[in-house]
Amino acid sequence: MTLLIVKNYAAIDPALSRTIEGSKITIPVFSSGDAPSKWCLQELSLIHDCCKTNGQIALPIFLDVEPSYVRNQTGSFEGPFQEHKRQFMPQIVENWREALRVIWSLKGSILNKDTNGPSPTEPSNGEILQLLGHKGTDKIKGMILPTGLQSVPLASEHFEMKSNLRFLDINSVHFKGDFPLLPLTLNWFRWKCCPLGILPANFYHKRLVNLDLSGSMIEEAWNIRSQNENKRFQNLKVLVLSDCTYLAESPGSSWFPHLEQLDLGNCRSLEKLNESIGQFSQLKNLNLKCCDSLKKLPDSIGELKSLVQLDLSWLKIEELPNSISRLSSLEELSLEGCSSLKSLPESIGDLKSLVELKLTNVSKIKELPDGVGLLEKLMVLDAYGCYKLVKLPRSMGRMRCLHSISLEGDNISNIPDDFSMLSNLFKLKMSTRLKSLPTDLSHLKYLKQLNLFKCAKLEYLPELPLSLVELHCEDCFSLVRLPDLSRLKVLAILCLEGCIKLEEIRGVEGVLSFVELNARGCHNLTITPRKILGQGTLLPDRPPLGSFSLSAIDGIYKKLFILCLVLELPSDFRSQTIYCDISASVRQKDKTTSSVHTLRIEDVEFTTHRNIIYLHHFKGFDWFGIPLQGKDAIENIYLFINLSYITSFLWIAMC
Questions:
Q1: Over 60: is that where the pLDDT of 164 sits?
Q2: How many CB atoms lie within 10 A of CB 408?
């Protein structure tokens, strides 16, 4: 049997889902003052599904809440449901409503507050447990008690007779009694916001597998070596102490001989790791993220031979110990946001199992040592925001497994000669001082995405791989030439925004998969040998400005194609150059390409008597380089002007 208290949780725990699905009886508890979060409603919806499909029995309890509020989503339930309607699809919200209506209709119990005194009293845990008595305490497999019961003491004797209890969550409540007296069947225990500053000596459990004490007031925990092998956590695999603000030192290893995951994330007062940290012989995951007070890692950390994931994000460390190279099983290393870290040890190349190296916003690092080039299993190298990074390893050709590289925001001026040997590269993002890329990238036969952002000195691109799906060259101010794109049959997205010197896009007609072309700010692409700038007057009964569409079969095929733009200028207009962005959808056979281009209208002279008329003659029968033929159509044409106070009118004409 599962006792489920419907409360606000940060996420649905997989263990809780399995407990619900495996239970014969569930008891959803609705308490006053707490509106249902999406997590609660998802859990309730799961109970509802289990009742329909598995014959599960649900016995709702209403703790000082009007049952009709639950049924009709009124009272304290009304506001949250209005918010849910704005955030989620109608079908999801309706499923939640149906679950509430069905659960309400079942035979349940109502526990009311004491109306005789001025201050209401919470229903006790004893009252809740008495409701379970008619089914027998040995049937209970899981219990979650609400945060609203934090003023009620909870004793170990409430649980010691529940011989099949496996899942227990007593968030915020005051727990009294001997921890070892909890049922031996218990394997998952969460006591978030535990009020104890120092854990008692008898705080251990032989069979527990998962222990979550996150957000607690704990200052000291298991720092003294365990002297008795029978009085420790014999089977614990996961220990969560994240957000324990006052915890100053990590726990000792002697209490947890089989620990696999230790989460100390966001323990802001953590100043040192226990000297026995290297003796966690089975530890696979160590999270030290945002431990602000931790300034140095001990050399003994290199003894963690089973460690697979190490998260050191946002630490204030200035260096990594050389011993880190001995982490032979390490696959993921995160140093994100380590703003004081100045360098990586050359021995980092000894991490032969490393798959992901995250250096995002490591702002003081200047080079990646040659050892990085020896990481033959590395798949992800993320150095985004390392704005002082100027040097890559001399050789990267051995990194054949490399899948993704991010060098955005860096200042690299040279790329290794063997860069094109990264045959499995899928995604490449760069923002550098490079004047050119390697002469041939076509050997990168699996490259799907190439992002070049603010490569201000880059003048041209080399031959690109046929596999490319996305090409982003944004704010590459010196870029004047692209390779012929007709070979890139699967190219879908081409973004050239801000490439102000680019004059031509060759081979667009050969690209079969185009869905998006963004050339905003590339005004040289729209230069035409024939354009007319004059003055005129709009007719008073002119049609309203809106979206235009034009089909190639509307009598315009093989005729001249002209765009007519009329501008109504305000009296305080002083500029002589106007930039206009034109977006449109070009429909060709069974695909549609959305596009954005920029027109630059120069030598505009202001007059109070006439409107400005601009006639743009297209170079051929195309839409700014996208060829048109047969049943092709230009749809949803919109105009945007950089000066919002200019009134504009747009027509497309042919003659």
A1: yes
A2: 20
